[in-house]
Amino acid sequence: MPVCIIYHSETGNTRTVAERLAAATGGDLVEVQDLAGYSKIGMYLKGAPRAVRGKKADIKPSVIDVSAYDIVVIGSPVWAGNPTPAVNAAVAALRGIEGKTAFVFCTSRGAPGKALETMQALLVDRGADVRGGVPFTERDMRNAGAVEALADLVRLPVKEKIVQ
Asked: Cα separation of 131 and 156, whole Å?
């Protein structure tokens, strides 16, 4: 079952989780770039308020076709308790997401806020069958095995379809 892992990462934490998940599931990676090119302070001063308002960024790639995949995973850093504007835009940029099994994950220094719920709602609005989400803290990211919980969720639909 082909897996597509779509993520946005500014500091590398979300990229690390996405790469570990790809290694564990054999999934393909799609990195979403925010064309605003935030500096570290710009993430907080400009990006976080945009994340709170649910804004969408100009991103690259501007269209993400997932029609060839059975499972789609979306990952985002947490900015002020929300997914980044780049991830909001990535969900809007999805083509072929309708009816696909989907999962979400987020990375943060502490609590994930409402980031997971927001990403799940965005995907449901696009017609995806969202099966769950996993938050990762900085501490989790130091543990290479922490991604296994998410990998197990992603692999479960594959096992379910084989058994049926």
From this structure: 10
pLDDT band at 163 (very low <50, low <70, confident <90, very high): very low
Nearest partner of 17 among 164, 149, 160, judged by Cα? 149
- Concatenated DSSP letters of 97-152: -TT-EEEEEEEESS--TTHHHHHHHHHHHTT-EEEEEEEEEHHHHT-GGGGHHHHH
What confidence category does residue 66 fall into, taking pLDDT thresholds of 50, 70 and 90?
very high
Q: Which residues are bridge partners to 92 per DSSP?
A: none
Just give the CATH number of 3-163. 3.40.50.360
Output the pLDDT for position 162.
35
Q: Are 117 and 81 in contact (CB under 8 A)?
A: no
Can you give the pTM of this predicted structure? 0.92
Q: What is the pLDDT confidence band of residue 157, given thresholds at 50, 70 and 90?
A: low
DSSP-derived 3-state class of residue 94: strand
Contact 7, 15 (CB under 8 A): yes
